[in-house]
């Protein structure tokens, strides 16, 4: 069992930056691929970025390429999402999630554990 708690969301102007954090409980954290997803009002939850258990592999959505960077610190049981050059269309609730199956997945059903989400609002 893994419990996830996101933080770091807020209101930022377009072009600005934010760093989201996701603190995990549970000793198995270091074995999980971790992902970030987001859900804008009226839209489905979508994949943003994911990182393998040892940070050896990362995978990102085209919409955030070159702007967002995922990282993790297994000693601190924490995964991060550094967001730069933010756009109004990045406005959403951001969720971190833990994947139990091998590899890196971009689909929601592959992720077994979810945080409660943190709001990111980008003003124009």
Structural write-up:
- The chain has 124 residues and is mostly beta strands.
- The chain has no helices and eleven strands.
- The chain has strands spanning 3-7, 10-13, 18-25, 33-39, 46-51, 58-60, 68-73, 78-83, 92-99, 111-114, 118-123.
- The termini are far apart.
- The model has no long low-confidence stretch (mean pLDDT 95).
Question: How are the elements arranged and paired?
Answer:
Elements: E1 3-7, E2 10-13, E3 18-25, E4 33-39, E5 46-51, E6 58-60, E7 68-73, E8 78-83, E9 92-99, E10 111-114, E11 118-123
Parallel strand pairs: 2-11
Antiparallel strand pairs: 1-3, 3-8, 4-5, 4-9, 5-6, 7-8, 9-10, 9-11
Short account of what is shown:
This protein is mostly beta strands and 124 residues long.
Number of helical segments? Answer: 0
Query: Low-confidence runs (pLDDT<50, min 5 residues)?
Result: none
Beta percentage is: over 45%
N-to-C SSE series?
EEEEEEEEEEE
Describe the biggest sheet?
Answer: 7 strands, mixed
What is the residue-averaged pLDDT? 95
For the record, give the distance between the C-alpha atoms at the N and C termini, rounded to a whole number: 40 Å
Overall body shape = globular
Total beta strands: 11
């Amino acid at each position: 069992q893994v419990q996830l708690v996101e933080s770091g969301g807020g209101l930022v102007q377009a072009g600005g930056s934010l760093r989201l954090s996701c603190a995990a409980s549970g000793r198995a954290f270091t074995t999980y691929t971790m992902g970030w997803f987001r859900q804008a009002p009226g839209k489905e939850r979508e994949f943003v970025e994911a990182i393998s258990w040892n940070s050896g592999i990362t995978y990102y959505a085209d919409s955030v390429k070159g702007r967002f960077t995922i990282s993790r610190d297994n000693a601190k049981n924490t995964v991060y999402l550094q967001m730069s050059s933010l756009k109004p269309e990045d406005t959403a609730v951001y969720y971190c999630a833990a994947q139990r199956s091998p590899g890196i997945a971009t689909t929601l059903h592959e992720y077994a554990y979810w945080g409660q989400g943190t709001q990111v609002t980008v003003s124009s």
